[in-house]
Amino acid sequence: MNHIGWALLGMLGYSLTTLFVKLATRDGQFSSFLVLAIAVSIVFASALTIGFVRGDIQAMVSNGSWISWNGAFAVATGIVLATAVISLFRALSIGPASTVVPIYGMFIVGGAILGFVFLHEQLSTQKIIGIVLACVSMYLIARG
Question: Is the CB of residue 120 less than 8 Å from the CB of residue 81?
């Protein structure tokens, strides 16, 4: 599967995550943090299994590559992803998905802008228009 297929699968997964978090927390029996703990346990076990099967973890440990800038970026990824997901799950448990998701979805615009600024990815008029339209549409959805 190419990057478009993986991105579409990720989009579908996050869309379903929104629905399932709302359903799991709506009657108050499960807190957002309990749902997150269950979800993270499954993600952790899955990622660890895939890393072992692919040989990534063994290679990282044997060559010490975890002590590098890449290792530091991996740790930073974990910290900001944990903050993002904790915040999303908490917001979904206390607010309407139709408001929370568009605001949270602005990470798409943020990620694109960071790609242009720090990764020197090509910026075009079409991409600028897309970012502006994404901002407007997410604002209209969250406000309406």
Answer: no
